[in-house]
Each structure stands twice: as C-alpha cells, then as structure tokens.
Records
---
Amino acid sequence: RRVPAGSLPGRPGGASGPEAAAGTPKGRVLVTRVLADALFLVHLAFILFVVCGGLLALRWRRVAWLHVPAALWGAFVELTGTICPLTPWESALRRAAGGSGLSGDFIEHYLVPVVYPAGLTRGIQIALGAGVLALNFIVYAILLRRAGRSPGVGT
C-alpha cells in the first residue's frame, strides 16, 4: 500500500499529535470541529428562541407559527427529561474531532456551560420547563389581547 509523502507523522506537511494517532487527517478533524461548533450555535439559538421567541411574536405575529411548536418542544424536553437530539449529535461530532467537548476555544469555554450547566438536576429541568411555559403563556396572552383590539397589526 502506497502512503502519500505528506501524510506520515513527523514528516514535513504530515499529521502529528492526536490526529496522527487516530489516523484522522487534520482537515477532517477541523471540519468536524467546525460542524460541532456550528451545531452548538444552532442549539443555543434554538434555546434562545424557545425562551424569548414569544417576544418576537409580539412584534411579528407570524413568528408564533414557528415559536409555539418550538416552545412546546423545549418545555417537553425539560419537563420529561428527554435528551434533545442535537445533544448526542454534537457530542458525536466532538468525539470524532478528538475532543471531550468541554475544553478549549471560546465557544466551549464560555457558551457550552450556558446550554449544559454543571449541577443541572431534574428539579431544575422541571422548573426551566415550567418557566418556559409560564413566560410564553404571558406573552401569548398579551398577543391575543392585542389581536382582539386591533386585527391585522404586526402581521
């Protein structure tokens, strides 16, 4: 079997470190790492939309068509203890990139704890789910009240 000259560990242009040990090209590790970070940012944006999307619906009513199912899903995940499908997908990408998922760059150091806080208990999850439902109940009550007074505004 012929091995390309630049692919041997320790040689100029060759792989080194964990990438070489795992037999994974650096480029693939980088792409996998970027995909894991991008998926994390999508996950974070979804969580922010679940929590705050109702406020967008106050301004643009049509956002409610996206937000209500998202908020219900977020509340379901928290209230039932279900794992969001994005979580294992992101973890698999981080492992494929040779990382543990909790150390390193800005995203992992500062943003990962926002989505995956230490000490998250079942009780806290239930409180978060109930909080999402309560916040959005209030926001949509306001939205429905406005809709009753001035139809067509904000659409």
---
Amino acid sequence: PLLAMLQIYNSMLQAVGQSKSATKSLLIGGSIKLIATLILIPTVGIWGGAVANLLCYGVGLLFSVIFYSKFTGSYKSLVKNLAEITLSGGIMTLAVAVIDYIVENIYLSIGLSLLFGGCVYLASALLLKVFSKTELMLLPFSKITLKISGYKEDI
C-alpha cells in the first residue's frame, strides 16, 4: 500500500504542476533507502533490505502528502482520504490473503487475487466514498458507481 499511495500522491503532484515536489519526495525516500540499506543489511541481513524499502516508501509518501497538502491547503480532507484509502487497501489485502490461503495452484491464485483483489478494492473504495461525486461522474460506468457509492444521480 505504501508504494501505491506514493505513486498516487506523486501523480497528483505532477497533475497540479508540482513535479519538482514529486521528485524531491522520491529523492528523499531513495536517499533514506540507500543509507538504511548500507546500515541494515550488514547488521540484520536480508530483513534489513525489507526495512529499508518500507522506510523509503513511508518517508517518500510522508513528504508527498506534506507537499500536496501544502499546495492544496487540504489538511482535514487529506487525513480522511488517507484513512479511507488505507482501509480499502487493508480490506483488499485480507481478501487476497484468503484467496492465497484457499487456492493451492499458484497461477490460479495469482489470477484470482488480481481479479478479486481489484474488485474488492474498488467496491470498498466506492462504499467508503473515497471518490467524490464529480470524480465518479467521469468514470465510464458512472450511473453504476454513483449508485454503489450512495450518491444521488442528478445528471
């Protein structure tokens, strides 16, 4: 979820003309990863690489969120949106973990995880109203997504 959220926020920064801020967050996260990797891998082994990755994406996301909220001035809605997106990601992760546990064939498990995980994420994001009504109206199946989200359709 950290990498996905980092990519989303960096894309939003680029969309509002803040490419330099997106680049700064990636450079900060990458620098943290380099330093953490050099320190942690010799001391704790392969787990150090995993921790370095988490630090990289977490710190990069933190800076992207800070840059985006500074530019837009939307601190309260930002926290709410982050919580909703994180909850949707958690629900999707649980769904994918269940499929992985139940299905023994690795190829079938991967395929079902991708399909079912994407559907569960989309459904949970719609139910939690992660997207605004205006954003949903831009989607190809806007009538259906508006109905699932509980927005009244007054097009």
